[in-house]
Design goal:
The chain has about 300 residues and is an alpha+beta fold. The chain folds into three domains: about 90 residues, Double Stranded RNA Binding Domain, CATH 3.30.160; about 110 residues, Tyrosine recombinase, N-terminal domain (DNA polymerase, domain 1), CATH 1.10.150; about 50 residues, no CATH class. The chain is about 45% helix and about 10% strand. It is built from eleven helices and four strands. It has a four-stranded antiparallel beta sheet, with helices on one face. The chain is elongated. About 15% of the residues have low confidence.
Length: about 300
């Protein structure tokens, strides 16, 4: 049977400054460890779940001799009952770390989201809109809440005051809250379903945005869109045809009224595609009138 260490007093423990591991007594396996740099800390040696462990119990003098002995007794008791105090402490530390990670408010997470996504946005105006809408409408109500504690009722409280008066803004606020909370879930800040989700969630509490504020199309500017008084292609074709009398008059003016002009049916026919418009200067120059004795235009009528 191993010899028990003598139980040292606090004064004696304070004098232990030489590097090494010094048993202080009072609890089996409890010792003060002194490093080469002069740092001192408590160490407990024990066996648990068939394995030997060394547990750190804190630094000296932050943890006093009496506190170190109390911690050592508690962990030895767990080991004697078959538990593993080392594994239990790791679990507690992990839970504490997770708890600390979850201590994120909506305002903090929204700022993280914007910082990570702003480079992918088209312009600075979009970033400004994101920040402004959340700061104006969301943060006064849910900004200080932990993201893990936000419920659908909180989101409804943000949206209801503006849902019918600023519908388009309200829908954007809802979408941005949803994105921030999805981001929080992806980072482990919350576990529940997204309280800002529309389908199967907020749609039961708020009317459809398209029915509250129907989409209004802007009136077309003059000269844009459809023709106010449409004209059929046939009517347009008729309007474009020159009258036969106009053709005769233009040709007479071009060649002189004292010359006979023979105007047959071919002059009234449609001009071929790509030809000059009848009556235009190019048409008159390129097409010479045919003179005929049969035409009496420009002559005196015969005597009776």
């Amino acid at each position: 049977m191993p010899r028990k260490a003598r139980e040292l007093s606090p004064l004696e423990v304070g004098r232990l400054i030489k590097p090494g591991r010094w048993s202080v007594g009072g609890v089996d396996g409890l010792a003060l460890q002194v490093t080469a740099t002069g740092a001192r800390s408590w160490v407990l040696r024990l066996s648990a779940a068939g394995r030997r462990h060394e547990m750190g119990l804190g630094s000296f003098p932050s943890v006093t001799l009496a506190a170190a002995r109390e911690k050592a007794r508690r962990n030895r008791s767990l080991a004697d009952e078959g538990a593993d105090p080392v594994a239990a402490r790791r679990a507690l530390r992990s839970a504490a770390s997770a708890e600390q990670l979850a201590q994120r408010t909506f305002t903090e997470v929204a700022a993280q989201y914007i910082a990570q996504h702003e480079k992918s946005w088209k312009n600075a105006k979009h970033q400004a809109q994101w920040t402004a809408t959340l700061r104006t409408y969301a943060e006064p109500s849910i900004g200080k809440l932990l993201v893990r504690d936000i419920r659908p009722a909180h989101v409804i409280g943000v949206l209801e005051p503006i849902w019918t008066t600023k519908t388009e803004t309200a829908t954007r606020v809802r979408s941005r809250i949803e994105l921030v909370l999805d981001y929080a879930a992806a980072h482990g800040y919350r576990e529940r379903l997204n309280p800002a989700r529309w389908k199967g969630n907020l749609d039961a509490a708020l009317p459809n945005a398209s029915k509250v504020a129907p989409v209004r199309h802007h009136a077309e500017e003059p000269g844009q869109g459809h023709v106010a008084d449409p004209v059929s292609p046939t009517r347009l074709h008729l309007f474009a045809q020159p009258r036969r009398e106009d053709l005769v008059l233009r040709q007479v003016l071009a060649v002189g009224v004292d010359q006979d002009v023979d105007v047959g049916e071919d002059h009234a026919a449609d001009p071929p595609r790509g030809s000059a418009v009848p009556g235009s200067p190019s048409s008159i120059r390129s097409r010479k009138p045919r003179l005929s004795a049969r035409s009496t235009l420009g002559r005196a009528p015969p005597s009776p």
